[in-house]
């Protein structure tokens, strides 16, 4: 890498900034990269994460444990807030076989967004389960595709088996204001969970 | 009038509670890496030198370094850990677990988003 390329890279200017990691999950094609790009101050970047699989599925009869490594591209964006906070939004790969990477991505994360498409609601199930099992606060954002059927929130809430306090919101991942609303909904929910709890 | 959800699909619900392991959260994708330019960096081994030179103009997160230098995340984590140990880099971990319920910080995030 030449130094000329680093000259145009926007650095984190504040030396006191707190970074915040958010994980954006959902099936392949649901709009994760679009969502990240709508609010990111940098063109979303991609970086390689390596995942180790210890088995290749039930029909692999010739080995008891086949170890394979898969390189998975993670998309992410950055959003600097005026309050000395730098948000990093990471798209979690949607394919079920990459779910172990979602577990890695949740480490150190403040919260998550599950993007859902009502044409394939089951595409959100796995990631919701992952977030729940990790205790990661999250919101479900139903992405507005033109041909997607519209359901009552209560029906979707039942189908997703959401805990009563988990927010469910509509969203257009292409629209900055809409994405901002999803993020503020998430942070408000985290605050609401925090207030009644004792600080131990 | 909303359509009826006909798929009949319902997610099976298996909460286990618990949190992501905080012990492993010290160096992750969003950890900010601040170069300390007062520490001599001549003589640093190959890729650590490359990371350090890249960071010299100013701080970035682990994932940004990995993306711009086209190195796997895991490699950058190891290199950054070495540079932290040698004092070339000061790191700031994203909101540590013990601060994730800090209302002041959460309010700062919320107000920051609202001001955008
Ligand atoms: N109509 C509509 N299209 C969207 C929306 N979000 C994403 N798309 C489109 O859906 C496709 C897949 O989006 P992408 O962000 O790449 O999905 P990812 O695989 O989850 O990262 C792209 O062609 C987007 O332009 C949305 O909110 N509404
Ligand atoms: Mg994508």
UniProtKB/TrEMBL annotation, chain A:
InterPro entries: Gliding_Motility_GTPase (IPR052705), Gpn (IPR004130), P-loop_NTPase (IPR027417)
Keyword GTP-binding assigned: yes
Record bears the keyword GTP-binding: yes
Pfam families: ATP_bind_1
Keywords: GTP-binding, Hydrolase, Nucleotide-binding
Superkingdom of the organism of origin: Bacteria
Gene Ontology molecular functions: GTP binding; hydrolase activity
PANTHER family xrefs: ATP/GTP-BINDING PROTEIN-RELATED, GLIDING MOTILITY PROTEIN MGLA
Family: Belongs to the GPN-loop GTPase family.
Protein name from the UniProt record: ATP-binding protein
Native source organism of the sequence: Phytomonospora endophytica
């Amino acid at each position: 890498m030449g130094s000329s390329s680093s000259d145009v890279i926007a650095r984190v200017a504040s030396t006191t900034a707190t970074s915040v990691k958010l994980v954006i999950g959902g099936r392949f094609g649901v709009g994760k990269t679009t969502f990240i790009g709508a609010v990111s101050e940098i063109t979303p970047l991609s970086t390689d994460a390596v995942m180790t699989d210890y088995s290749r599925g039930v029909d692999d009869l010739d080995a008891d444990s086949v170890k394979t490594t898969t390189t998975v591209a993670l998309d992410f964006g950055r959003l600097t807030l005026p309050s000395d906070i730098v948000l990093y939004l990471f798209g979690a790969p949607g394919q079920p076989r990459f779910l172990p990477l979602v577990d890695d991505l949740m480490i150190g994360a403040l919260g998550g967004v599950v993007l859902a498409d009502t044409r394939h609601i089951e595409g959100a199930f796995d990631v919701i389960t992952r977030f729940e099992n990790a205790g990661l606060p999250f919101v479900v954002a139903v992405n507005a595709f033109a041909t997607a059927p519209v359901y009552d929130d209560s029906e979707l809430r039942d189908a997703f088996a959401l805990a009563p306090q988990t927010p469910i919101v509509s969203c257009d991942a292409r629209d900055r204001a809409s994405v901002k609303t999803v993020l503020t909904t998430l942070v408000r929910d985290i605050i609401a969970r925090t207030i009644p709890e004792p600080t131990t | 009038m909303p359509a009826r959800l006909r798929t009949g699909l319902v997610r099976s619900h298996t909460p286990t509670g618990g949190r992501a392991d905080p012990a492993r959260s010290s160096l992750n994708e969003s950890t900010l890496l601040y170069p300390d330019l007062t520490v001599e960096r001549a003589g640093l081994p190959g890729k650590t030198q490359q990371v350090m030179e890249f960071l010299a103009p100013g701080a970035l997160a682990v994932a940004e370094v990995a993306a711009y230098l086209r190195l796997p995340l895991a490699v950058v984590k190891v290199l950054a850990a070495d540079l932290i140990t040698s004092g070339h880099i000061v790191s700031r971990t994203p909101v540590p677990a013990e601060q994730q319920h800090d209302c002041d910080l959460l309010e700062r995030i919320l107000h920051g988003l609202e001001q955008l």
